[in-house]
Design brief:
With 257 residues, this protein is mostly loops. It is 14% helix and 2% strand. The chain has a domain of 93 residues. It is built from four helices and two strands, in the order ααββαα. The longest helix is centred in the C-terminal third of the chain and has 12 residues.
Length: 257
């Protein structure tokens, strides 16, 4: 194990101990894109971690070896998270507020701009994660983001082809039932006021302590009502008449509250 310097860093990576190795952008010269560092490849990534270059630091699963759970990477803790970012392990990148130091406003994290927003996502600062449409690149439909499937939904939440479909099929739903759920475009909670928000809906199947299954499914609801039902799980006595009637509903099979 490499020894750390008096400042708690590896010597080659310490500005105080090895200032000549750092450029005007406060990065190691060899790893700085602006300075055309020797470790930066043609794809503007560190050569050892570039998938296109077949970097030595990439495993067979397409991830960094040290961060790959399947490979048992050295950077993964017993909770299957990066050691440095694990709250339970007290990771070095976690601040006293339970957030990543870099993105914590209270700590004045380096990733926070003068507008109290993440630099990479700040429209005023022209953040690197934003596209020409003013949205995050990885979630912009106009840019053809890979996060969206052929049904123009987020891959992980699409009930026709994504993770949700596999979850429901595993929970004994039929393919036809999953398709019907996917066709619903508006919140099914009584008197919902945000029907035209255009966001993905949540499938309500976990608000009576049961697992994902047809007996427990009530319908598709918006984010607000999903949060509301979570509150009513804790304080059921606060439920209104509409909420009580909704919570008794089972579209696929009659059941008890």
């Amino acid at each position: 194990m490499r020894k750390k310097c008096e400042h708690g860093r590896l010597k080659f990576n310490c500005k105080e101990c090895n200032s000549s190795a750092f450029c005007e952008h406060n990065r190691l010269k060899s790893r700085c894109k602006e300075c055309d560092g020797s470790q930066i490849c043609e794809h503007e990534k560190r050569r050892e971690y570039c998938k296109d270059c077949g970097g030595s630091g990439i495993c067979e699963h397409g991830r960094r070896k040290s961060r790959c759970i399947k490979c048992g990477g050295s950077g993964i803790c017993e909770h299957n998270k990066e050691k440095s970012r694990c709250k339970i392990c007290g990771g070095s990148q976690i601040c006293e507020h339970g957030r990543l130091k870099r993105t914590c406003k209270e700590c004045g994290g380096s990733g926070i701009c003068e507008h109290e927003t993440r630099k990479s996502r700040c429209k005023i600062c022209d953040g690197s994660e934003l596209c020409e449409h003013g949205k995050q690149k990885d979630t912009c439909k106009e840019c053809g983001s890979s996060a969206f499937c052929e049904h123009t939904r987020r891959k992980n939440t699409c009930k026709e082809c994504g993770t949700y479909k596999r979850l429901f099929l595993k929970g004994s739903f039929t393919t036809e039932q999953v398709k019907e759920m996917g066709k619903i475009k508006v919140c099914q909670f009584p008197n919902c006021l945000v029907q035209s928000n255009g966001k993905s809906l949540y499938s309500d199947h976990c608000h009576d302590g049961q697992k994902c299954n047809p007996n427990n499914y009530r319908g598709e609801i918006c984010y607000g009502h999903n949060m509301l039902l979570g509150w009513l799980d804790i304080f059921p006595e606060e439920a209104s008449t509409n909420a009580i009637e909704y919570m008794k509903r089972r579209p696929f099979k009659e059941g008890k509250l």
